[in-house]
Design a protein that fits this description.
alpha+beta, nine-stranded antiparallel β-sheet, globular
Length: 248
């Protein structure tokens, strides 16, 4: 697999992670960008065993959201977080890149003998801003709900004819989890696989909720009840504030 797309993705994450406003515009879009960039060739295969093996969403080992592997966005210093990644024997090939026009810095890595799976960004170059993980499909949605409780909001996005994702929002945990669905005509069930997670700061999670159209969580059911392109009147949550993207 070529390493160039990996570097391009890291460049993109750094540019878009330079402020909470840019991060807000990428959530949940940032996750699907990570998934697509990690695929070796089109169409993307979202259920990929070569992605990160991680059960911490249901075990809270070694820590629970918004903490991952001892790293908490908004609290953990960048240097400490990077050392944690570099010292983990199950992770390899960490790469870092610093933005040319700001203090922002990003890192990406993969599991041992696996594919690019994970990204981390600091907006100020000092403290971790967010962590994005693409996961191997080991955890089922039923297990996630038993461990973390029910999400507050959900939003569905089609990817290909037979692949879609539903983003599950846990505002109090500053966590977004991605569940796989077998296309936009399929259903979200207890057996739906978890294929990604994003850990954010409380500030960015709050801003995401305040500036997004979101469906209230209504349990298992057809993908269509959570679709992102639903008519405005079908969303239970609509933007309470409006922000204008900064130039550049």
């Amino acid at each position: 697999m070529s390493r160039v797309p990996h570097q391009n993705q890291l460049d993109h994450l750094i540019r878009e992670g330079k402020s909470s406003m840019r991060l807000r515009l990428l959530v949940p879009g940032i996750i699907i960008l990570v998934i697509l960039a990690a695929a070796c060739q089109p169409p993307p295969v979202l259920r990929n065993d070569r992605m990160l093996n991680d059960l911490s969403l249901i075990t809270d080992d070694p820590c629970g959201a918004p903490c991952w592997k001892g790293i908490t966005p908004g609290e953990t210093r960048w240097s400490e977080a990077l050392t944690i990644i570099e010292d983990d024997p199950n992770l390899e090939d960490p790469q870092t890149q610093t933005a040319q026009d700001s203090k922002a810095i990003g890192a990406q890595w993969q599991k041992k003998d696996g594919d690019l799976c994970c990204q981390m960004v600091s907006e100020d170059g000092e403290t971790v801003s967010f962590i994005s993980l693409t996961l191997a499909p080991e955890v089922r949605l039923r297990g996630l709900l038993e461990a973390r409780g029910e999400p507050k909001y959900a939003l569905g996005q089609g990817v290909t004819d037979d692949q879609a994702v539903v983003y599950l929002f846990y505002p109090e945990q500053s966590l977004i989890v991605i569940s796989f669905v077998a296309g936009t005509n399929a259903e979200l069930t207890g057996e739906s696989e978890i294929i990604g997670a994003l850990y954010a700061t409380k500030k960015d999670m709050d801003l995401t909720i305040q500036t997004s159209n979101l469906h209230a969580w209504e349990g298992y059911g057809p993908f269509s009840q959570y679709r992102v392109d639903a008519p405005a009147e079908e969303f239970e949550v609509t933007p309470s504030i409006t922000l204008t993207p900064p130039p550049g």
